[in-house]
Amino acid sequence: MLKLLNCIKSYGKKMILNDVSFEAYEGQTYAIIGKSGSGKSTLINILATLDKNYSGKLFISNKQVNYNNDKEVSKIRNEDLGFVFQSYQLVEKYTVFENMLLPTLYLKESKINHELIIDEILKDLDLYDLKNNKVNELSGGEMQRVAIARAIVNSPKIIIADEPTGNLDDSNMEKIMEIFNSIKKRGVAVIIVTHDMRVANLCDNLYEISNMKINKVK
Ligand SMILES: Nc1ncnc2c1ncn2[C@@H]1O[C@H](COP(=O)(O)OP(=O)(O)OP(=O)(O)O)[C@@H](O)[C@H]1O
Ligand SMILES: [Mg+2]
Questions:
Q1: DSSP-assigned letters across all residues of 20-56
Q2: Which of 43, 127, 148, 175 is the most interior residue, by most CB within 10 Å?
Q3: Which amino acids bring their CB within 6 angstroms of ligand 1?
Q4: For 167-190, how does the pLDDT look when each residue is reduced to its tens digit (9 = 90+)?
């Protein structure tokens, strides 16, 4: 499903990842933990195809990512991957619905009624009442749920989330983990960077980055 092989990543002379390999499969959740500055975001940006400046190989859906083919990389990003960023990356002046529609704009013309799919996801995530509210009127937990809702609009095979529960209280954190668990049951691989051990313990697999290496803890 997703496989990174022998990744070496440096910023200038500073090595961040030294021969790191990582695999993720459908229907599983993965937590990646590690101290601040250990390289979690660096790794996840590579997994998300957002950083090509490393040595190693990345396979997504059994195909090696070819960074020289922009079209192919965009297709992977739009159709295979869903991202939830640390800082939400929502368009604040747009409504919840408009934000949800954004990823679908890059898809090829199709007869799918995106609004029906969006409505279903919004209901699932308890956001339907906020559909026409502007994002800058929402609470942090609500914005985080919208960011997740938007990441699953295109039915990705892999969800990559950087600190999706950062700054959330227990009940919002649990709600978000329930959402990830129900997404995983649809056959999605969910990869979550977190420093929250409650979140890590709710994932099927646990990895830790330290000393430029990644180790499987669970
Ligand atoms: N664009 C960059 N240029 C140079 N160094 C960078 C850059 N981005 C990150 N780094 C360095 O790489 C190291 C790993 O950063 P990274 O953001 O991956 O850490 P992290 O594990 O995600 O930390 P946090 O938990 O604080 O988010 C840090 O020492 C950071 O200073
Ligand atoms: Mg980070």
A1: EEEEE-TT-EEEEE--TTSSHHHHHHHHTT----SEE
A2: 43
A3: 11, 16, 34, 36-42, 195
A4: 678 888 888 899 899 899 989 999
- What's the 50 CA to ligand 2 centre distance in angstroms? 14
Q: 210 C-alpha to center of ligand 2: Å?
A: 14
* 44 close to 162: Cβ distance less than 8 angstroms: yes
How far, CA to CA in Å, does 20 sit from each of 32, 56, 93, 174?
A: 13, 9, 40, 30
pLDDT of residue 106: 78
**H-run or E-run covering 200:** helix 197-201
Rounded-to-integer distance, Cα 86 and Cα 81, Å = 16
Helix (H, G, I), strand (E, B) or coil at 112: coil
pLDDT at residue number 166:
80
Measured in whole angstroms, how far is the alpha carbon of residue 131 from the centre of its chain?
A: 22
Domains defined along the chain, listed by start: 2-216 (3.40.50.300)
**Contact predicate 186/29, CB 8 Å:** no
Written as one letter, the residue type at 193 is V
SS3 111: coil
- Near ion ligand 2, which residues have CB within 5 Å? 40-41
